[in-house]
Amino acid sequence: MNATTRSLVSEFVGTFILVLFGCGAVHAGVLTGAQVGLWQVAIVWGLGVMFAVYLCGGISGAHINPAITIALAFWGRFEWNRVAGYVAAQVAGAFVAAAFLFVMFSGFLEKKEKDMGVKRGEPGSIVTAMCYGEFHPNPAGLPQDQPWSDAQWRKFQTLVPTSRALLTEVLATAILALVVFGVTDSRNTAAPPPYLAPIIIGLTVAALISIAAPLTQACFNPARDFGPRLFTFLAGWGTAALPGINGTSWLTVYIAAPIVGAVAGGGIYQYALLPAFTVPQATLAPAAKQRKS
User: Measured between alpha carbons, how far is 96 from 227 in angstroms, rounded to an integer?
Assistant: First the structure.
């Protein structure tokens, strides 16, 4: 196995781990009531990030997110000719993780749909599809002990229109990318030692989920959404999953917005923060200039 193949396998494995832990926590919370409060789900997502980066970071860099891969390439930190392979591996890892979760939780998925009076493939089946792909607002905000109501969903949906969902995903992913760029840059004198960077990144993800999850289910990662969403489309949810009840949001909110946000966050780091870590020649003392020459 050559270095390129090892990197792709690494991205597949890393994204698989991320989605298995993160979407697994969502399954446990939504379907069994196992999680108590949003923070428990959020911190499991953060732990999934940490585990993936510690395991795969030394092989592929553990991008585990197409938005981060594209942002790194856009700002010259990654080769463009490797982007497509990384993105494909990330989506595939997320898809396979979703398949495993489907098998593991199939009984609970059926029970949830029966309890809420929905049939898989109908609009109301987002009450289980939300364990995979994402919707805005978060369907978990609806009463979970009552039958699904299309009218109730339409009223609830007005709380987070597409414009607010786009803003949420762009802003949150920009912050995530800003942190990734900052804590992995050796020129940043305030960055933690490299072996602590995955912890900071994981906690950043957990904190952002704690804010954004009620609004958009907190994507920040096109592979994390599209891989599982594609699986549910093929596994019986059909158009309830893709394109889904939010129309084109699967593309705009959950793919385009994280990419735009990540590129913007990387740009903020490159142009607003990074120059502070570079000492201009004019500020060096004469002796330091002489030593450098």
Answer: 8
In the predicted model, what is the mean pLDDT of residues 49-54? Answer: 98
Amino acid making up residue 76: G
Q: Which amino acid is at 145?
A: D
**Runs of H (alpha helix) within the chain:** 3-32, 38-60, 66-74, 83-104, 106-115, 126-129, 150-157, 162-183, 197-216, 222-232, 249-251, 257-268, 286-292
Q: What is the pLDDT of residues 65-112, one digit of tens each?
A: 999 999 999 999 999 999 999 999 999 999 999 999 999 999 999 999
**The pair of three-digit structure tokens given for residue 124, joined into one six-digit string:** 């109301």
Q: How far is CA 64 from CA 16, 220, 284, in A?
A: 9, 11, 40
Distances in Å between the Cα of 109 and the Cα atoms of 10, 42, 129, 153 are 30, 21, 9, 20
Q: Are 222 and 259 in contact (CB under 8 A)?
A: yes
Q: What are phi and psi of 256, to 5 degrees?
A: -65, -45
Tens digit of pLDDT for each residue in 166-204? Answer: 999 999 999 999 999 999 999 998 899 999 999 999 999
**Sign of the dihedral defined by the CA atoms of residues 54, 47, 240, 259, in that order:** negative
Angle (CA) 145 29 11, round 5°: 145
> Dihedral of CA 212/217/135/229: which sign?
positive
Q: In whole angstroms, what separates CA 97 from the centre of its chain?
A: 14
Of the candidates 22, 24, 18, the one whose C-alpha atom is nearest the C-alpha of residue 92 is 18
* DSSP 8-state secondary structure symbol assigned to residue 137: S
The CATH code for residues 3-274 is: 1.20.1080.10
Domain ranges of the chain: 3-274
User: To 10 degrees, the CA torsion angle through 125, 127, 129, 130?
Assistant: 150
State if pTM tops 0.70: yes
